[in-house]
Amino acid sequence: MDALIDKLKGEIIEQLNLEDLKKEDIDANAPLFGEGLGLDSIDALELIVLLEKNYGIKIQDPKDAKAIFTSIQTMADYIKANQK
Amino acid sequence: MEIYINGMACISHHNTIDENYFFEDIGSVPLSNQLTATEPNYKDHIPANLIRRMSHIVKMGVSTGMMSLKSAGIEKVDAIVTGTGMGCCEDTDKFLRTLLDNDERFLTPTSFIQSTHNTVAGQIALQIKCHGYNFTYVHQNLSFEYALLDAMMLLKEEEASTVLVGAVDEITPSMFELFYRGGHIKKLEELQPIWNSTTKGYLVGEGAGFFNISANITPSTYAKIKGVKCIQGITDSSELENIVNFFLLEIGLKKDQISLVLSGNSGDVVTDNKISEFNKAINQPIAYFKHLCGEYFTSSTFALWLAANIIKRQTVPLAIFPNHEPLSNIQNLLIVNHHEDHQYSLMCVSKC
């Protein structure tokens, strides 16, 4: 799980151009949106594409997205539970 | 109605972001065939949370716009008008590559959103909370000139009292590759002073120039814009000469009142043919600028920035004025630009 979280942090930094952040700056349990990383709705779309492209996971019900993208930890949990 | 340049900023290959810099260190032979921009610290001009989504061209445009506002000593304008010849190529490139590489799947929104031509004008408006007129012109080599004409009309029709007008273009690796393979860009072994060029091709460049214009003169005023004219191609140099004569008549100047002509020779011996003939015929001092900024669709912004600076400083950098005695009492500058002999433009700026 730690390796997956570390990989996710790197992918998020790259995909969202979070140039000033390093992996160690990101708390896996901190909120991704609002507080914490302070991401917004465009970033949410980027994360949906990241999940599909890098992990082959398509979010079927948009209502689930809020829970999945709560933090990097919840993203990692979702990937682990759904990756084929 | 007179139109004044009350603030301006320019990002170019040289250190034009430094207000004190004026090409003192430049020789006549260019050092490269690709004149990429010398960039400022963008974080000084754009909030960090916005920068991360901005590509090179957007950062150049927005920061130049913000620097222009600072130069004019104002924080808001009534209208924003921009021009770009090629738009946001880096983001367009990225978007199209993703489309191809992923078999039209996994398209992310950011590069698509940021690749529209109006991105720079829109981002400036968001940053300064300007809800007024916001427009972008995309007309190849005349993109900036049409933006400027529109901005001047807004002032003349009193729809705005202050307008931020500018233009920006970038060169990306894939554009360089295509233009080079197409024979548009000079080979490195063929670099010469552009006014003595014997070879085909130009030096490719990129940059941004923004101007705060208004009908009111202020302590920060650089120069006044006497007139702008767009020309969609000419048959020979005598036609250009006739158009220039008519343009000067329209703005109430005689040929001998032009202190200096800033000529848009690109260094391409073939496509510069008509403008070189014109330069000889006009019989006024000629200076050149494209060895400083390179050729790009909105290089006229660099020329206008340079002209307004020359007017305000009352000095012509040696780097652009080969084999001439220094000029004094510089009153009127005529900019004659062209791109590969397709589109020509005239701009005249005068001392206030």
Note down, in words, how this protein is organized.
The complex is a heterodimer of chains A (84) and B (352). In chain A, helix 1 packs across helix 4. The longest helix of chain A is centred in the middle third of the chain and has 15 residues, at 41-55. By secondary structure, chain A is mainly alpha-helical. Chain A has one domain (2-19, 30-82): Non-ribosomal Peptide Synthetase Peptidyl Carrier Protein, Chain A (Orthogonal Bundle). Chain A contains four helices and no strands. Chain A is globular and about 30 Å long. With 352 residues, chain B is of the alpha/beta class. In chain B, helix 8 crosses helix 9. Chain B is globular and about 60 Å long. Chain B has one domain: Thiolase/Chalcone synthase (Peroxisomal Thiolase, Chain A, domain 1, 3-Layer(aba) Sandwich), CATH 3.40.47.10. The model of chain B has no long low-confidence stretch (mean pLDDT 95). In chain B, the strands form two sheets. Chain B has a ten-stranded mixed β-sheet with strand order 4-3-5-7-1-8-12-11-9-10, with helices on both faces. Classes of the chains: A mainly alpha (84), B alpha/beta (352). At the A-B interface, helix 2 of A face helix 1 and helix 4 of B.
